[in-house]
Specification:
single chain, 466 residues, alpha+beta, Cathepsin B, Chain A, nine-stranded mixed β-sheet, two-stranded antiparallel sheet, globular, hydrolase, UFSP1/2_DUB_cat, hydrolase activity
């Protein structure tokens, strides 16, 4: 006979306590000490405030740390299951030292004619790490779905977008100091730790060129795609470094910057000096904009962002581009019904991409359409991404096509960079990490998008090539 498998040791994401007796003990621990509201496991007189390790307070939602080693993201519970699904898709990637050490001043080639990059095989230790992470992901997903768990209830899973604010209306008064709900776990931290600052200065960011043309190939192969639009193929996918935490707003500004430094389609693109700005440079530009009374309420709301790891969002991107005199348009979509918010977002994004006269149609009947347009900065509560395209499925539904700074590109995608006519046995599987549809968007009632405005009379527009 074989011995029964030992229960998986689990770490509590709130206080670090370890359970050596499996999921039920962890569930009991979280229901007892970290439940939102009243725990069914405690008598009234025994109920106490959450312990010191809990991330959150009465006005801000509680955050859960992603259990995947090196991720470092703190997410609202409602984000966790989808976030873990995408980590599952990412299991064949993991950080490549060569990728992380690529300086911002030396971007990789985005040409489809470039020699294909080799795809290193995972080492034995990397394989073991992947197995451990897969076990952690599976355990957490089972925990989130256990019947009767408050983690499974609408009370916690639904984002608290209606939290009380200074004006009691559910929307924040401009100039009011914000908390963790908007600025993240480190909302009240004055300065990021030295080890993190050194990491960001030395390694910059993970950036991959040539992914948009690969998405075009995968969409062409996908049996579920009716038609799709994509932004200019020069745009880099920029993702985070291992252990950096949440700098998604900065990473999205960097992705928009990758368009500006490689095309002549937007006025004052030269102000970026042909290089992707660092996180610290972006912070300096935003602070300088505030110094010059450009959306200066942002300083009061954040308490200042220089050398910090506070979240930034659309208002900070607006301040930066306005200071640099780079033309843009920002739009907020807010509705009482989640379905209406998603519907209007899809309409706006599709309208944006279908309006480009330089579109290059690919495949039978122009199923995939490469445009010369910039990508879009996309924000919802707690996270931002870069929209690089729009897809209409054969069943009539829509998908945003995004570069998410949380995740890197898989080997199956990077192995296709620079190559044409490469078959893929499971294109929809490869596209999953880039698609955001109702399953993801249906949890939100408010979105923000920022679009750079191409100069319609530019004398030398950068052409779209495939």
């Amino acid at each position: 006979m074989t011995d029964a498998a030992e229960p998986l040791t689990m770490d509590c994401p709130f206080c670090g306590w370890k359970s050596k007796e499996g999921e039920y003990q962890m569930l009991l621990h979280m229901e007892t000490l970290h439940v939102e509201g009243e725990s069914p496991f405690l008598a009234q007189e025994e109920r106490t405030s959450p312990p010191k390790g809990t991330v959150g307070n009465d006005d801000d939602p509680q955050y859960v740390e992603c259990p995947v080693d090196g991720c470092g993201e703190f997410l609202l519970v409602s984000q966790m299951e989808y976030h873990l699904d995408l980590h599952t898709e990412e299991t064949d990637i993991q950080d490549l030292p060569a990728s992380e050490s690529t300086p911002a001043s030396e971007p990789t080639s985005s040409s489809l004619n470039a020699a294909p990059r080799s795809s290193p095989k995972p080492s034995h230790s990397r394989s073991e790490q992947s197995t451990r992470q897969s076990r952690a992901i599976s355990a957490w997903k089972r925990l989130l779905k256990m019947p009767g768990s408050s983690l499974h209830s609408e009370q916690i899973l639904r984002r608290r977008s209606d939290s009380k604010t200074s004006n009691g209306s559910g929307s924040v008064t401009r100039g009011t100091r914000l908390g963790k709900k908007h600025l993240g776990r480190y909302a009240h931290e004055d300065r990021m730790p030295d080890w993190l600052a050194d990491l960001l200065r030395k390694k910059g960011q993970v950036q991959t060129a040539g992914v948009v043309p690969v998405l075009a190939q995968l969409l062409e192969l996908s049996p579920t795609t009716n038609y799709a639009y994509l932004c200019h193929p020069c745009v880099y996918h920029i993702s985070k470094l291992r252990r950096e935490g949440g700098f998604c707003g900065y990473r999205n500004i960097q992705m928009l910057s990758s368009y500006l430094i490689q095309t002549t389609n937007v006025k004052n693109h030269h102000k970026l000096n042909s290089s992707i700005p660092t996180i610290f440079q972006i912070q300096d530009w935003i602070e300088t904009a505030w110094d010059n009374n450009i959306h200066a309420t942002g300083r009061a709301e954040t308490g200042g962002i220089r050398n910090s790891r506070k979240f930034i969002g659309t208002p900070e991107a607006v301040a930066m581009f306005k200071w640099l005199q780079i033309p843009f348009n920002a739009q907020s979509l807010k509705y009482k019904e989640h379905a209406k918010a998603e519907e209007e977002l899809m309409k706006e994004v599709e309208k944006y991409f279908e309006g480009d006269p330089t579109t290059l149609e690919m495949g039978d009947g122009g199923k995939v359409r490469l445009t010369g347009l910039p990508p879009l900065y996309f924000q919802h509560l707690g996270h931002s991404m870069t929209i690089v395209g729009f897809e209409k499925r054969r069943d009539g539904g829509g998908e945003l096509l995004v570069f998410d700074p949380h995740f890197k590109d898989s080997y199956t995608v990077t192995g296709m960079i620079g190559r044409t006519g490469v078959p893929h046995p499971r294109p929809d599987y490869a596209l999953k990490a880039y698609r955001r549809g109702s399953k993801y968007l249906g949890d939100y009632r408010e979105f923000e998008i920022l679009r750079l405005l191409p100069d319609p009379v530019a004398g030398t527009r950068t052409p779209v090539t495939a």
